[in-house]
Amino acid sequence: MTKSKLDAIREAMEGGKPTMVDVAKLAGVSAMTVSRVMNGKGLVRESTRRKVAEAVAALNYTPNQEARNLAGSKPIRVGFLYSNPSAAYLSEFLVGLLTQSGLNNVQLFVEKCEAGTQEAEQTQRLIENGLDGIILPPPLCDSVSVLRCINDAGIPAVVVACGLPDAQVGAVSIDDYDAAYRMTRHLITLGHQRIGFILGHPNQTASARRLAGYRAAIAEKGADAGEELVVPGMFTYRSGLDAAETLLSLAERPTAIFASNDDMAAATVAVAHRLGLDVPGDLTVTGFDDTALATTIWPELTTVRQPIAGMAREAVQSLVRRVRALREGEDAAPEQITMDSELVRRQSDAAPRTRPPARLPQAAAKRSYAS
Questions:
Q1: Where are the beta strands (DSSP E) in the chain?
Q2: What's the predicted TM-score (pTM) here?
């Protein structure tokens, strides 16, 4: 290092105490590298360590522990951008989000964003609140425009329940493929060979992962793989009504229906009851998520428990860890966290009847529930 460079930095300090940035300028490295050397973390070349040590000595720099403690306690401003058609899912998510935000000194900024319409503009408006990070639940966790906007702003993000998360952002998820595979195998083990499947929203990668798990179990066990057994849904109760009508209007109707979320499973139960079918005597119905809805209908739903509130809590903690590390100039690679799911059996599943199934009312025609 040259004397002129040292003098210039000392002059710029104007009698103040040297900072980590001053050390970095004198050593010709980044502030993050200085932090790694000072904290003994990460891989740093020996020649770089010497440069940093010389700069520290020349400037008589000592870390300000009080400032570091303050950085750790300073509130973290987190944006929550949501657009979820399932009120039950969103309610569970908010419980976890608010609980953990209170524990971690997080200031939460909530913004609703209609998926597919002005996503980037609404994301930018949220970012302008001076955020430290953003949490994205489905379906926005899969939005290319939203993620691009966040990346351009250079702030950390954590996506939740994304089927195939981008390695550039943090992620908290379950294995949707495995969960759907296990539920389908469970139904086949009960004796069902003709199993209907109601898809989730096509703009969510988790929907495709659940369908893939269903199809893998069907193929493995040699159950009926007819394409008519897979019908579209949108993760809404209303779309579940239409999907259930379609499946139960088939000449050879399924003996079980596996819906991609609890809202659509509850709608399926409602359609079955309207048609005079007993659940689970004439028709087994299962869901996915284990929201509060699963235990407020009759019969209570057999479903896949996705720890929604727990995933939201984990997302807050992951984001807080990353923001605090960045504040201290440390490496802060995005965390990819996979949580466990669980198959929860209740009253809506059973072995198929050995006696003839209940006859559908002859006058019953397929109804449309489109809004």
A1: 76-82, 106-112, 133-136, 157-160, 170-173, 195-198, 230-231, 256-259, 284-289, 302-305, 336-338, 342-344
A2: 0.74
